[in-house]
């Protein structure tokens, strides 16, 4: 009896979490399949898709994956497991009890890093200022082009000066590596206007040489960086 009560409580929690999501938060089945069954690159693409989507359910899904709450059964079922109950993510149907052959998803170090970065990017939309500040600080060393949509969206909405400044700096640091000249130039301009402590390090990278050639091929970008670094 106690076990059945626990199962029913677990199902109630899972169903509340699933059905409380707005329609926009229902993750595309193909994305869930790639996340659960895909190889390294396919999983990485699925994570990037979730970050770019901005869906409210994406954060919960990635947190559950990192916590070990996502399991698979065979090659066609993906379960969100809580205690003795589960929800089949591709259909939204409750599953109880949890099948004995449910298998944990393997999360290697690379994927763990990708999940951490993705979760931080999605937390940029949190209503709590402290959460957003912590998230952008985490992203400073891990942000990449996959997180740029979330960073740009957060930057456009952010009202807190400290968080906004760190977002702009993080965005620019990623854009410095872009293959697009205009994007790199815009990043250098943004950094030139910033008074953050690590701006100097980023701009020195613009002036770096490898094999006798400047890392940054654009002369205007180098001139702007040099001007910002020149003593007042």
Low-confidence stretches: 10-25
Element order: H for helix, E for strand = HHHHEEEEEHHHHHHEEH
What gyration radius follows from the Cα positions, in whole Å?
22 Å
- Count up the domains: 2
Large-scale geometry: elongated
Count of helical stretches:
11
Note the beta-strand portion.
5-15%
Structural class: alpha+beta
CA-CA gap between termini = 77 Å
In total, how many beta strands? 7
Helix fraction bin:
55-70%
Give the spatial strand order of the biggest sheet.
Answer: 4-3-2-1-5
Largest sheet: 5 strands, antiparallel
Mean pLDDT: 86
Describe what you observe in this structure.
The protein has 2 domains: 2-107, no CATH class; 129-229, no CATH class. 58% of the residues lie in helices and 10% in strands. The chain has 11 helices and 7 strands. The strands form 2 sheets. The protein has a 5-stranded antiparallel β-sheet with strand order 4-3-2-1-5. It has a two-stranded antiparallel ribbon with strand order 6-7. Strand 6 and strand 7 (213-214) form a beta hairpin. It is elongated. The N and C termini lie far apart (77 Å). 28% of the residues are buried.
